[in-house]
Fold this protein.
Amino acid sequence: MEKILTIVIPTYNMQDYLCRCLDCLIVPEEQMKQLEVLVVNDGSKDNSSAIAHEYQDKYPDTFRVIDKENGNYGSCVNRGLKEATGKYFKILDADDWYNTDALRNVLKVLMTADSDMVITRLRTYCESRDENVDSLLFEGVETNHIFRRNDSEFAEIDFYRFIGMHKVAYRTTLLKNIGLSLQEGISYTDNEYAYYPFEHVNSVIFLNEVLYTYWIGRDGQTVTPEVMAKRSWQLFKIIDRMLDCYSADKDKVTHQFQYQYLANTCAMYYHLELMVNKASKERNLQMKNLDRKIKSIDLDLYNQIPKCSKRTFY
């Protein structure tokens, strides 16, 4: 049977959380045949691989383990995309999980869907407050309706509000045809996954399903302020590459999405370097060069970045 959805699970030392992640993907037998789950074990030093192999042994037509040397997040997505055979492609982090009922509903839609991008809703679980917060409804956007880029309605959608790694699935052939390749050896490349394919998306459908649960508050997460501060140089590499794409694209809708995405990501980077890291002379020079690059590409974008988080390094 044709695989409808490939789910790639980048995994590094996730033995404490992996069972919860994989259990949420157990759907009725007929839908299991439509699902392809690729657990990409990124050189884990714990029992992550052994746990994943248990699921592969039990559900060999659905789960497959790919053991590889450590190359960080982007390398896992790249390898998963290379191996993917599903009609659609989606990522699930090993410490997060899907709503199983929502997954069943999404699979039913994907069977007949004919859009390049599928957007679902997100639930954020905050451990410190033991609280779930669902993303807002798609206000002003019709669900279960295909929007096409050449339609006027497409241009009216504020895609920045809705696009993120946790929310999107892409047509697999689209990602392969554009040669999507995330940077390897660094974190935060989920931003690239959300950012680059959009310029090639010609159709999108919104589904009112709260599919993905994103867990925040776990010690050691890459999105904690302490970890982000130490790895801010990796965010710099993400932004520098994004700017090249931004300067080359002229499509109005894509350009506006990239504009908002870049402004927010740049502000975060400058804040980490200037307010948290108190950047060194070398980092100051790096920021100065980035500052000039942004200014030369788009002065409006440059001025959009909050003044409190830039230019204080001159």
